[in-house]
Amino acid sequence: MAAERAGSAGAAGSEGSAGAAGSAAGSAGSAGAAGFAGFVHHACLYASDAEFLAMAVPFVRDGLAAGEPVLAATTPANIELLREALGESAHHLDTAETAYFGRRPVDRVSAFLRYHERRTRPGRRTRVIAEPLWAGRSARQIAEWKRMESGLNVLLAGLPVWMVCPYDTRVVPGDVAEAAMATHPVRLDGRRQAPCASYTDPAVYAAGVGAKGLGAASCAPPHALRAGPTSDAAVLRRAARERAAAAGLTADRLALAELAAHEAAAYLLAPEGALVTLCAWEEPGAVVYELRRPEPGEGRVGPGGGRMGPGGSCAGPSGGRMGPDAAVPPFAGYRPPAPPGEPHGAEDGLWLARTLGDSLEVRARGPETVLTLRIAGPGDAERL
Q: DSSP secondary-structure letter at 103?
């Protein structure tokens, strides 16, 4: 399974992916990623249709000529430009409108894995043009997508995938274009490749985006419902349901909110002796659950088998070495569960929480690990 192969490489951290892609810099065309079995991740900053095509046309043509599956997940305008430029070859290109190819980061990762698993060919690399959609997103959503772009270097590290992420500098914010150079090991301009000098280890980058874009301090209001600290997931689940019901969620939506909070709490409670505190409140458009777990000192085994190091750092299966006091890997819960009949993964419940919620943030706050889960409120018309 694609997710399983990616997972086996995730434990090695981000160095393998960055190193493979970085060593390809300077070469051109299909040779630019040849000889590397793992994930190759490039950014392409373009300021005109011609600059987009200068990258996309040779990338697609070289892939199709090599018998590789090629996907272009980009804007409808870019898909039309690319089809016109490819001519008859366009019949062999897979396309997806990027706005619907994974609405949220967790969906996006699943979409990449599903595509690779369906279309992979023995001895062939899968090529993907994957243009994120930035326009109209909130600051919180932009921070989450930046984290995902960085996390792909870990989450897909074991897969033979060459991904190019285009950024249209005519419309993307300046900080997003700058982030592209920090979340991709290599920049691709036409056929020319160059290492990104500001590329940052994904675990380090995720921690920085969390502190700047998502807030480091608790935002729980004084009237928030509090439960715990406790080792009993049922206590936390009842509190989560009570607060969601008070906010106006009913029927299936109430049950799903309760389930999402329970899965997040159960993940934090997995280590022996763990205690979790839940704070729950309503804000415009969302029910918010903040789950906090104090972290003991060095020598502790974290969720998923990562052993805590001096000062609480952790080498986890989904994000390389963690920063101080962070027991949960920053990209935990992004990979979908294995198919029925295969072994249950330690992060399956966290993936379910991410999928059922609007967002789930993982960060360290002093000596605590904090998960902040947001569930769509009763006024969300998408779910009415």
A: S
Q: Which of 75, 69, 116, 74 is nearest to 94 (CA)?
A: 69
Task: Please name every residue paired with 36 in a beta bridge, in sequence order, or none if there are none.
Answer: none
Give the neighbor-by-neighbor strand order of the sheet with 186-189: 94-97, 70-74, 126-130, 161-168, 40-46, 186-189, 192-195
What pLDDT shows up at residue 330? 84
Q: What is the pTM of this model?
A: 0.82
User: Which residues, listed in sequence order, are joined to residue 316 by a DSSP beta bridge?
Assistant: 320
Report yes or no: 306 and 316 within 8 Å, Cβ to Cβ.
yes
Can you say whether the dihedral through the CA atoms of 317, 323, 326, 327 is positive or negative? positive
pLDDT tens across 119-136, in order? 999 989 999 999 999 988
Q: Which residue's structure tokens are 């070495």?
A: 321
Q: Specify whether the CB–CB gap between 328 and 369 falls below 8 A.
A: yes
State residue 35 phi and psi, 5-degree precision.
Answer: 85, 0
Q: CA of 217: how far to CAs of 202, 214, 222, 263, in Å? A: 22, 9, 14, 23
In this structure, which long-range contacts are made by residues 314-317, counting pairs with CB atoms below 8 Å and at least 24 apart in sequence?
315/11, 315/13, 316/11, 317/7, 317/10, 317/11, 317/346, 317/347
Given a cut of 70, is residue 28 above it in pLDDT?
Answer: no
Q: Which of 62, 57, 56, 14 is nearest to 38 (CA)?
A: 14
Alpha-carbon separation of residue 384 from 33, 226, 331, 376, 377 (angstroms): 46, 28, 30, 11, 10
Q: How many residues does the chain have?
A: 384
CA distances, 120 to each of 30, 89, 257, 295 (Å)? 17, 19, 36, 41
Lookup: tokens for 238: 């009842």
Cα Rg for the chain, rounded, in angstroms? 21
* Residue 26 clears pLDDT 90, i.e. is over it: no
Question: Where residue 368 falls among pLDDT bands split at 50, 70, 90?
Answer: confident
4: helix, coil or strand?
helix
